[in-house]
């Protein structure tokens, strides 16, 4: 059974069909997993009895999948990374079987009930000596609070069920992967936001507990800054100066913190605002609200400035995006991303 998978991972602003694929060919499995996630090399460890099954859906650039596959190895090489269009984080929740994840000169034993994180921007290897049943989530790196440097501290580390947030995340991810109907219709975006927020909290907490004191202070500061920004996105006067004052640091220090993450304060604020507006424009619960009212509520009181900014970020006018997004919801499509 097949359905067209996304190509080289979900692309921002694209509507993608569900993935449903089963095969007894390791080459076919490599082709489909490479197109569904990121380019990979797969080696068969099953003595010629290979079998793999993958189901999944993309919602808001987040790929939720459930894999059942016989023993195999997965390799993400530097050459494959250089050929990739976009870079993501991936987490694996093991349901059955065991595995080993190697990245950044660390090895993590993947046991049932554990969650492991890895970064597609750097080489990694996965080895599954037993048949495995696992939930794999792939999402853009900027969706979570922890910076790439802090996530590096927890790659190839197994977050076991003894950790409180692992116990909170596991039931939701298991339920989603058991019935992808939860990723259909108007509630899909809310389910995805809840899942990503829990994943972000899990990874940020794990990074805080596994970094040096200096790095811990740095991560804690960044989390406080991002939380302050997100809590005040609707304030049109939000700017680097008042953000810095709220964090008790200089504006120069604030700019330096965001520069280390490859962005700027203003760009990050803009991205968060447009993402929030995009979600509400595509939500039938907000269909009665004028676009200008939604934009104002997220810090854009100037309609023309908002329209230009939205078009630059999303690739289409707000009104066109809303029509397309609501029409997709009416048709019951699983992804509420809209292509320009």
From TrEMBL:
PROSITE patterns: HTH_ARAC_FAMILY_1, HTH_ARAC_FAMILY_2. Keywords: DNA-binding, Transcription, Transcription regulation. Residues 223-324 form the HTH araC/xylS-type domain. It comes from the Bacteria. SMART domains: HTH_ARAC. The keyword Heme does not apply. This is Helix-turn-helix domain-containing protein. The lineage of its organism: Bacteria, Bacillati, Actinomycetota, Actinomycetes, Pseudonocardiales.
